[in-house]
Structure formats: C-alpha cells, structure tokens
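Posting for a labmate who doesn't have an account.
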Amino acid sequence: MANQKKVLIIEDDAPLREMYKTRLEAAKFKVLEAKDGEEGINLALEEHPDLILLDILMPKKGGLGVLEILKTNPSTKPIPVIILTALLNEEYRSAASRFGVTDYFVKSQSMPGDILKKVQEVLGVQS
C-alpha cells in the first residue's frame, strides 16, 4: 500500500515489541523497530514515521532523552509520540507532557487493543 502509515516502536523489551508489531501489522501499519533510544532516534531521523511508540526506561538513551531530541529537531518535531511505560510516575508523565506527547499509557494498565485504537485514532485510520 502506497499510503501505508509507518509506526516506529522504540522498546527494549523484545517480546513486548514483537507483540505490538504483530498487532500493528495486522491492522495494516508498516512497523519499524528500535531496541534502544539511540537506534530509535536514528530510525526516526531516517524514516520519518507517522507515529512513534516510545518506552521510557531503555538502555543507551532513555525515553525522555529521546523525546527531547525528537521534539527539538524540526524534522521530527511534528511526529506524534505515544509513551508506553511501566512507570506510574507523575514526574515522568509531566515531563513527557511538557514535550507535547500525544498520549501516555502505563503498560500494566493498558491492553494492546487500547494502544492500537489510539494509534488508529491519532493517524486517522479506520479499523
């Protein structure tokens, strides 16, 4: 599909990354994967995805550091970012919202279907 929307998943947990990839591909999204923050930044700059799913706690560069770089770079600033984190931490949530994240999901409180629905909503894609 020529107008297939690209979603970049930046997540260090391989089984979780794979699960989201499977769900998104089943919904006809093109999925890019990064296993750490540095790889995620490079992929975002190269590929200009339509949306980014971003974990907070990761090796090499944490999610807030990634977010700061992406949101201060003019070429990646407009890309919507949805945080997926294990952290129920108000400090992280408010830091993320200062950078203009689209949404913030706590993994233990969110079903993969909820995330998929949000991605579709943000990208204007019908399920």
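Reply:
Got it, the structure tokens are right above this. The mean pLDDT is 91.
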